[in-house]
Amino acid sequence: PARLVAAPLVRARAARFASPATLGDDLIVTSRVVEVDARRQTVTFEQTVVDAATRIERFAATTTVATFFFDGNHPDDFFDGDDREPPWRALRSVARERTSFDNTFVTPVTLHREELGRGEYGFCEADAMRFFERNRTDAIGGSAALARLKDERGIIVVVSGMEDIAFAPGGMRRLLVAEDSEADANAPRRMKTVFSRSATAIKRRGLQIAFKHELVAASSVSNSDADAWSSDAVVLARAEVTCTCLSAETGRPVRCPEDLAARFAT
Hints:
This protein is α+β, with helices and mostly antiparallel strands. It is built from six helices and eleven strands. The strands form two sheets. A nine-stranded antiparallel sheet has the order 3-4-5-2-8-11-10-9-7. It has a two-stranded antiparallel ribbon with strand order 1-6. The protein is globular and about 60 Å long.
């Protein structure tokens, strides 16, 4: 009989960061099945993370995983081809039109096997979130700018919510690994450079910064911003992330400094 070999996350919505947790906290993760779609072979959960001692909610989200079963074929088939991906699951790159999310930022990401959750086979959703975070940090001005914001103005920028989260499950290997070396067929295959790109807007009268993130692979290797927005760029993951400016002292929302807001406003 077929057995389950993988259940990668493909969608998430209503992700809410209710309260911060710190390294060393004991947490309880609860998952409740809310839908099983036999046609699409997906399972949807409502998940929560609470503090084990206080039962204070830390995080909640509705998540959907795709189920892959081993049916006698080589298990690497899950990673090798995306030809079997049903149309509803594909992440399409759409033409970027002028909207309220008009300021854009691009961060080239050179992939290294040892940094990826699936090694040679590609990245997992945690890797994609990390690449999105790298893009947000670059957009703000780097880690030094974040440190100055806290030390000089008493303001921190935290992720407060995520929506429209989606990942392309399987089929990653051909997108993320460059062509084999013609000179040495036994040489390790090179990893591609991908782009973490975002379009931004200011929300809630200057209290929040919204990022529409996409992780894309482009056929060109020049690493320019134009490559990241080219029509042939293939979307590997996406998410709309909301960041809120907080007082470092009180933890309450505050208006983002004008010079910071100006980087992201239309």
